[in-house]
Amino acid sequence: MDIYELESASGVVVSVGGQLPQNIALRLQETGGANVLGTDPKDIDKAEDRQKFSEILDSIGVDQPAWKELTSVAEAE
């Protein structure tokens, strides 16, 4: 936020680097009040989070393959 504020930026573009910039964009917007230009980080998060995306598909009646999130090898066995 130091550079953002020093430059009196009107916004920030977060476009490359994978998941890390996405996580930073969410924090910049939510806690720092930065104006993230382009797709809203919350919408990107909804598309990338399997559970959130599945809930969206369910809410609009789109069929999807059965899936399950596992957090350990024991759960997979």
Automatic annotation (TrEMBL):
Annotated ranges, domain Carbamoyl phosphate synthase preATP-grasp: 1-46
Q: Which GO terms describe its molecular function?
A: ATP binding; carbamoyl-phosphate synthase (glutamine-hydrolyzing) activity
A family per Pfam? CPSase_L_D1
User: What domain of life is recorded for the organism?
Assistant: Eukaryota
Assigned keywords, A-Z: ATP-binding, Ligase, Nucleotide-binding, Repeat
Q: Do the record's keywords include Repeat?
A: yes
Q: Name one GO cellular component term.
A: cytoplasm
Q: Which reaction is recorded as catalysed by this protein?
A: hydrogencarbonate + L-glutamine + 2 ATP + H2O = carbamoyl phosphate + L-glutamate + 2 ADP + phosphate + 2 H(+)
Q: What is this protein called?
A: Carbamoyl phosphate synthase preATP-grasp domain-containing protein
